[in-house]
Amino acid sequence: IGRDAKNTTVNEYSSILVVSALLEDIVGLTGDSESKRHEDMHEIRATLGSMGGEEESKDLT
């Protein structure tokens, strides 16, 4: 957890990573448009970025 995640528990942080992985799978399985996928990834990046998780978010794209 990054130094900016003081108010976020490890469980909350892990849950966001799990949800992002599930979103990645769902998008792949349903064949959603590339623009929808980018919207989802942008939301996840914004959430992770606010918690100091930029390194993790880069792996999702």
Quick gist of this model?
By secondary structure, the chain is an all-alpha fold. It is built from three helices and no strands. Residues 33-45 have a biased composition (Basic and acidic residues).
Description:
- The protein is mainly α.
- 70% of the residues lie in helices and 0% in strands.
- The longest helix has 21 residues, at 10-30.
- The protein starts with 9 loop residues before the first helix and ends with a helix.
Strand and helix map with partners:
Blueprint: H1 10-30, H2 34-50, H3 54-58
Helix pairs in contact: 1-2
Determine the oligomeric state from the structure: single chain
**Main sheet attributes: strand count, strand direction, barrel closure:** none
**Structure classification:** mainly alpha
Q: Give the tally of structural domains.
A: 1
Gap between N and C termini: 20 Å
The radius of gyration computed from the alpha-carbon positions, rounded to a whole number of angstroms, is: 12 Å
Note poorly predicted spans.
Answer: none
Shape, please? flat
Strand tally:
0
Region (Disordered): 31-61
Biased composition (Basic and acidic residues): 33-45
